[in-house]
Amino acid sequence: MSVGKIFKFHNDLDTDQIIASQYLLLPTIDEMKVHTFESLDPEFPHKVKPGDFVVGGENFGCGSSREQAPSVLKALGVKAVVAKSFARIFYRNAINIGLPVIVCKELPDAVEDGDEMELSLLEGTAHAKGRTYPCTKLPPYMQEILNQGGLIASLNKEGE
Question: What is d(CA 86, CA 101) in angstroms, rounded to the nearest whole number?
Fold first, then answer.
């Protein structure tokens, strides 16, 4: 069970809005993360705290396939991204690095920026504003991949 603040974004949020292409030239994710959501909310990297949540609408993470988009969110301590739906490549990149991406059809329309939310990955529920919303319930093997830090970390551990 995780509790955190919601940072809410719109439908069709593309990876260039998460991290603009000019910052991909920076050598590390730590240098890139201070530019996360710069065109939408320049203060986001200073406001978000470890354990907070990004909530979006339909087609979250569309656009280019840059893996830096979920990486900067994870580096800032975002606990999970909850949206109505995800672009397939963003979803895959997030799982690869161990950032939970949770489909929750009803929650995004019911919450506002700054609301508090409780998320249970095990139960597949989100609780906000006095109501519980059904979300993707990740199978145990997916939970284990996320617990190990993502698919890449999980595969590296298998090879040890």
Answer: 8
CA dihedral 33, 38, 44, 46 (to 10 degrees): 60
Q: How many residues does the chain have?
A: 160
pLDDT tens per residue, range 112-121? 999 999 999 8
Tokens at residue 27, please? 């050598």
Per DSSP bridges, beta strands 101-103 and 131-134 are: unpaired
Sequential DSSP letters for 40-109: T-TTHHHH--TT-EEEE-TTBTBSS--THHHHHHHHTT--EEEES-B-HHHHHHHHHHT--EEE-SSHHH
Task: Give the predicted TM-score (pTM) of the model.
Answer: 0.93
Using CA atoms, how far apart are residues 133 and 84, in angstroms rounded to an integer? 12
